[in-house]
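=== Structural record ===
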Amino acid sequence: MLHIESLDEGLELFKALGSDIRVAIIKQLLVHKSMSMNELATNLGITGGALTSHIKKLESCGVVSISSESAGHGNLKLCSLNLDKILIDLVPESIPENTYTAEVKVGHYTDYQVFPTCGLSTSTQLIGEVDDTRYFAHPSRYDADILWFTRGFVEYTLPNFVPSNSTITGITISAELSSEAPGVNNNWPSDISFSLNDVPLGQWTSPGDFGDTQGIFTPDWWFPNWNQYGLLKLLVINHDGTFIDGLKISDVTIDSFHFTPSSIMKFRMSVLDDSAHVGGLTIFGKTFGNYSQDIRVSIHYV
């Protein structure tokens, strides 16, 4: 997956794809998976020299990759596709004035207590062994882009870098979330509770642990019967209360906390033992699920 977040960022890729020959190369590799340079040149009816220049263009943009394989007395150069999807954001995201925005990686929690089924993974490999809670303390957990557990909590310290003379008027947090079923189950409700500095904010019931299709950003090596994607939820705390996707979930307001620019903010996501639906929690980061983001935090101020 290649995610292009602006038209300017994708300019070189657009140039590389603006050629009938290079599009034909990609089509050949979609059919044959991996081909030698000689096979490609023969199938396309062009010289090896002409093919090399086209391949270099595609390789420089990350669309194809070249590897060497021993063949007889020399090395055979093999060409294969490096991507399965290209996603382009045509409209860049705008940040409102008087807002400090940051993204917190899924594995950057500062406290936790979790129970199996549970686990963590980076974009390339599992961290330790699944259902072994010890690995939630492993140093590699800082690189985690997905985590899941049946009950318990993870807590994050929110970065607070608003100007020193400002007044905090609200906090917005967005994250891609789902339940955690054994395997996957689209009908697996879970009551996910939120708190800030130990003050309960309310809860949202996740409808399931989704596995009917692969997540847009979920890596190809990921197991098909495991968590694939979640739902992007927007939690807002302002002067009027606390809201999920615009629906009020509690009367807790930002004024309840008396936050200053030097305040510590500890945000917790939990599945409580006494919930009506103890169906677990999965948190998706930038390289998993359907949204290319980590836990996104915005602190609004005047």
The chain is about 15% helix and 40% strand. The first strand starts at residue 2 and ends at 4.
